Structure formats: C-alpha cells, structure tokens
Amino acid sequence: MLPIADCHADTLSRLLLLEDDQMSLYLPQPKHHSDYPRMRAANLRLQIFSIFTMPYEAGHYGAVRSLQMMQIFREDIRKHPDLFALIESKADLAQAEQNPDKLYGLFSMEGASPLCGDLKMLEVFYRQGLRAIGLTWNHRNELGDGLGVGSNYGLTPFGREVVQRMNALGMVVDLAHINEAGFWEALELSKDPVIVSHANAKALCNHRRNLNDEQLKAIQAKNGFVGLCFAPSFLNNDASLASIDDAVRHVEYLCEQMGPDHVAFGSDYDGIEQVPRGLETVDRFPDLVERLRGLGYSEENLYKICFGNVLRVYQDILK
Ligand SMILES: [Zn+2]
Fold first, then answer.
1. What is the pTM of this model?
2. What 3-state class would DSSP assign to 47?
3. Could you point out which of 24, 266, 299, 311 has its C-alpha 20 to 30 Å from the C-alpha of 47?
4. 82: CA distance to ligand 1 center in Å?
C-alpha cells in the first residue's frame, strides 16, 4: 500500500477538547474521523497537524491553546518513541521517506493570530517545532484578511514581514483561507514555493474556498501543491450529494490544470462537520487511491500525489 501524506487535519484541536487522560492520538477515538489505529490502517505516514484556534481565541489565549495542542503530540512521542516522530528538518523528512514504521507529524498553524502581531512569537513557535503557517483563517487577523471578510485588501506590513521571515527560517507558507488579494501578494512575495493545504477546484464546485484556474496555474508555476480537501461543500455544489466520486473528479481536474507534481491530499478530517460518502474516516484513503489506480494513474504519479509531492516541497523549504 502506498504511503499517504495528509496536509491538513484538525485532530489535535479535537483531542484538546477531551479529558487530560484521553488526549492522545494513540488511543482509539471512534467519535473522531482520525486516530492512530485508523491512520495506520490507511498507511498514513505523514500527518500535517493543523494548529487551529477560533477567532474568539485570538491573541494570547490562542497562543496558549496552540502550545497545548502541540504538546499533545509531543506527549505521544514521549510515550511511544517507536511509533511517533515530529518533522522539523530535511533530515527528519528523509527518515519519513525511508521508515515505514512510524507516523510522522508536522505542526502547521491555521490562522496566525496566535503570533499576537509580534515577530518574536514566530521565532518562539518555530523553536517549538512549527514549520508551516496558514496566514489567515476566514476572518481578519494581524497579517491580512480571510475569505470571510469580503475585502480586497492584501497583506498588512506585519503579514509581509512574516512571509519574509518564514522564508528565512525555512517554513512553508500556506495560502488556504486567505482572500484573493492576499493570495497573490503572498505568492509573489515568497521566494519559496507556496501551498494551499486544503482546497479544491472552483471550476467544478463554486465555493469561495476553492481555487480558480489562474490560482492553480500560479501554484504550479511556484512549484507548490494543492491538497485535495474532503469538505462536502468544497466537493459538490450540492454538499449533501458529495462523495468519493467528486474527490476523484477534483483530483483529475487538478492534475489536468497543474500536472501530477502539484496535487496532494489535505482531508480536513476532524475539522469538517460533514463527510463525503465513501470517505467518512481516515482509513478510507486507500479507497480513493484505488479509484485513481482504476482510472489508469501510473504508480509513479500515484506515489507523487499520495506522498511524494508533499515530501518534495517540504524538502525544498525546511532547513
Ligand atoms: Zn481550514
């Protein structure tokens, strides 16, 4: 079975809502979309954990919550060093490529308001292992405006500083959720590839979070990737009908537009309320791969989409 890299799941923020002794990825969590036993069943090898805080948790409280989320995975690593590892460097990525026995995690902040508008906080989080940031969520923060604001403003001066400092530190800039003006400004400003960790094609499903063809081409030109998102409302204009068939259609379209080197997975498990038919939980990933194989995708291209593209971009950027 091919290894899977998933670029976006809110599993740690879900775990943070549980009692202390239940806050573990290792324990089965049947009410969640994802947990260690089911990740292993899918041969999921690299999980990029969203460090997500709600708008009402902005600023200092969000910083505390973010550190607590990161600590959940650190505790799992401490208790099960043979099963879990954190990716902080190119060398760690090489380990993940070679060693099928561990689940590798990587921390990515979704919405940068826990930085509290202070570049020093970027350094603090970097030292805690943060290696990617989605600059905004749907609302306005210190860096720019999310898609929910409805503005045409680009990045703030602080937002531009953060992108430049992220480039210098070797962190991945994620443009999911940012408004279009911010998308273009950050894409042009970043000297490294940029990604959209979880979104689909607007041509197939007209949701504000999906990307138009021009954006897809720009991500390709920048040598980044787009992670296919399983949110039903991003898959099908009638979310109630969303299924694995739509996921396949979006993969095909993304490959048509950008080529197989720029397509990945960003499920948003444990962050989405509804799930598409056929992709209800993390252990269904192999079904999606099997569907693509049935359409004639080569093993080489399947490997890239499942794992290789994420590895390549993070290898490019991390120190
Ligand atoms: Zn999101």
1. 0.98
2. strand
3. 299
4. 30
